[in-house]
Amino acid sequence: MSTLLQDLDNAMYPQIVQVTPGKDYRVFVYFADGKIVLYDAKHLLTKKVFAPLKDEKVFKGACTILNGTLAWDIAGNRDETKCLDIAPDMLYSLDAVEEEVG
After folding, report:
1. Contacts (Cβ under 8 Å, ≥6 apart) of 99
2. Which residues are bridge partners to 16 per DSSP?
């Protein structure tokens, strides 16, 4: 695939390759093209469906990639229909950040 087609594909369907939960309900999201964003999930905790994530151990332990995006596998069975996930294009629209080392 040519570089131009790869760039268009990433722009239309950003590929998430890694997620790393951190302190204070934030998650580093790593994309295939090298972009890194920091997603602050605190605002989700006010919604009933995200209530299980208030437990920071659940927030960190269930954080994964499902459905091609940042997700929380609350049931722990990798069932993509029962996970809590965030739209990858919304995540990609966030400003890029530097990776924290340390």
Report:
1. 28, 36
2. 31
Handedness of CA 54, 17, 68, 73 (dihedral sign): negative
Q: What is the pLDDT of residues 27-71, one digit of tens each?
A: 999 999 999 999 999 999 999 999 999 999 999 999 999 989 999
Low-confidence winner among 58-62, 70-74, 81-85 (lowest mean pLDDT): 81-85
d(CA 2, CA 70): 27
Domains along the sequence of the chain with CATH = 3-92 (3.30.2020.10)
Q: Which of 99, 101, 100 is nearest to 34 (CA)?
A: 99
